[in-house]
Amino acid sequence: MAQVSLQNIRKIYPNGFEAVTRTSFDIADGEFVVLVGPSGCGKSTLLRMVAGLEDISEGHLSIGDRVVNDVDPADRDIAMVFQNYALYPHMTVRKNIGYGLKNRKTPAEEIERKVVEAAKMLNLEPYLDRKPSQLSGGQRQRVAMGRAVVRDPALFLFDEPLSNLDAKLRNQMRIEIKALQRRLGVTSIYVTHDQVEAMTMADRIIVLNVGRIEQIGTPAEIYHSPASTFVASFMGAPPMNLINARLEGGQVLVNGGTPLAKAPGVGAVTLGIRPEDVELNAAGPLDFHVDIVEELGAHRLLHGQLAEQNFTIHVSKEIAAVPGATRVALKPDALRLFDVETGKAL
Question: What is the pLDDT of residues 300-315, one digit of tens each?
Answer without folding.
Answer: 999 999 989 999 999 9
